[in-house]
Structures are given as C-alpha cells and as structure tokens.
Design a protein that fits this description.
single chain; alpha/beta; five-stranded parallel β-sheet; 5 strands
Length: 217
C-alpha cells in the first residue's frame, strides 16, 4: 500500500484528490496539510511514501517544504503540483528534490499514475515538458562552473546526459545510439550516482547550469 500525504491550502482540492486516491486498491491517503509547515510536520510524523505538494500555499510554500522534506526524509517522495505548466516554482521544487511535477488539471488517471511512478523512484515529468520548463527558467541564470563530478563521467555518460537534457527518453536514447535499453539504463544509473542526483530533473538542471546544453538545442 502506497501511503500518500496531501498538501494543499484548498480543502475542496484535498477532498477531490482523497476520493480519487482512496478508490485505488494500492493507494491510501494518510494525512492532509493546509500549508507547507503542516506538510513538513506530518511528513516527519507519518513518513508517507509520497507527498502530493501544491507549490502555491500561504506561509511556508511548497518549494521550501519540499526542500525540508527531501533533505530530512530521503525515503519520502514529493510530487509537485502547480496550476501553471510553465512555472519557475516548479523548477525550484525540482532543484529542491521533488521527484516529479503535474499540472493540477491532470486527469484522475494521470494523477494516480504519477503517484505510482514517483513511488517507484522514477521521475513523473514528461521529458520534453521537463526540458521546456528548465530551458525557460534556467536561461536567465549565468552558467556556473561545471561541478567536479562531471569530470568523472565517461564520454558515453556525458553524451547520454546531454541527450537526457534534450528531452530524450531512455528508449529514444537506446535507438539513437544503437544500444539496448538496459545498457542505457545502466549508464543513467551510473551518471546519476556520480552527479549525486536523484532523478532526471536534477540531472537536466546540472546540464543546463554547466552549459553542456543551451535552451533551444
């Protein structure tokens, strides 16, 4: 059973999400928070598997709450929710450790699958939406010095990192490089470990900030 914590300042939204999630045999809503502080407090107490985190809440917002939760409770996954597809707070939440992002007007099926995806340890952001988001809101940030971890990547791992940053899925990377999907998966796992990132979102941010790729490429 996947334990889910809901964090949203609108009670009606929480009620709707709870009805959708509790109707699934493998999901259970274990708590509700009306702001970021409550989300952090309940995460510490309940240790949910997944937190559905609205990014726009009064007081402590969802970005700060995400940062605290992912830092203190690495076993808790955060799925960020926003009213807007292109929102700088989504990139901030991904930087803070969120495992995925969904717009709040997603279908019940997409919401349910998103919870399951992040619980499996995968990123619930469509690759091309991810690169569009990060390309939009990282472009105004001056490139930083490439992290030392990049020097530890093999040539193939660096190549795959650039392809990930261009929005390619593992299957597309495998087809383009004429290798098996399992080989790509192994390379991705290795480069994530070397970069010290949890998922594709954080890897893409590093690629943009280190100027390995530029918006529009």
């Amino acid at each position: 059973m996947i334990a889910v914590l809901l964090a949203d300042d609108h009670a009606l939204v929480r009620t709707g999400f709870k009805l959708m999630l509790d109707a699934q045999p493998d999901l259970a809503v274990v708590g509700e928070a009306a702001d970021g502080e409550q989300a952090v407090e309940l995460s510490r107490r309940l240790r949910p598997d997944v937190v559905l985190m609205d990014l726009h809440m009064p007081g402590m917002d969802g970005v700060r709450a995400t940062e605290l939760i992912t830092t203190e409770l690495p076993g808790v996954r955060v799925l960020a929710l926003s009213t807007f597809d292109l929102d700088e707070n989504v990139v901030a939440a991904l930087r803070a450790g969120a495992d995925g992002f969904l717009p709040k007007d997603v279908s019940p099926e997409e919401l349910i699958e998103g919870v399951r995806v992040v619980h499996r340890g995968e990123s619930a952001v469509a690759p091309r939406l991810l690169t569009r988001l990060i390309g939009t809101f990282v472009r105004t940030t001056p490139p930083r010095t490439a992290p030392a971890e990049l020097s530890g990547l093999t040539e193939r791992e660096r190549e795959i990192l650039v392809l990930i940053a261009r929005g390619r899925s593992n299957a597309e990377i495998a087809a383009g490089l004429a290798v098996s999907p399992s080989t790509v998966k192994n390379h991705v796992t290795s480069l994530f470990a070397k970069l010290g990132v949890r998922d594709r979102a954080q890897a893409v941010i590093i690629a943009y900030e280190a100027a390995l790729i530029h918006p529009g490429e």
